[in-house]
């Protein structure tokens, strides 16, 4: 079983929101990707136009950005 969670902070480090989510079966990469997705949903609801995300996994970063065209074969 895997889960994901994140904290959304403002530019001064103040808490703006957060979440925890039970995902079920999967691996650490799936959990990280869910974390990115859920975090982006929150900042979109908060109407942010610019965000900075910190991700622990290079594989996940490469899966998201790939070759610069939004596709990757890392997963």
From TrEMBL:
Xref: Gene3D superfamilies: Ribonuclease H-like superfamily/Ribonuclease H (3.30.420.10)
Highest taxon listed in the record's lineage: Eukaryota
Chain ranges of the RNase H type-1 domain: 3-68
Pfam families per UniProt: RVT_3
Family matches, as InterPro entries: RNase_H-like, RNase_H-like_dom_plant, RNaseH-like_sf, RNaseH_domain, RNaseH_sf
GO molecular function terms attached to this record: nucleic acid binding; RNA-DNA hybrid ribonuclease activity
PANTHER family xref list: OS05G0353850 PROTEIN (PTHR47723), POLYNUCLEOTIDYL TRANSFERASE, RIBONUCLEASE H-LIKE SUPERFAMILY PROTEIN (PTHR47723:SF19)
Name of the protein this chain belongs to: Ribonuclease H protein
Originating species: Trifolium medium
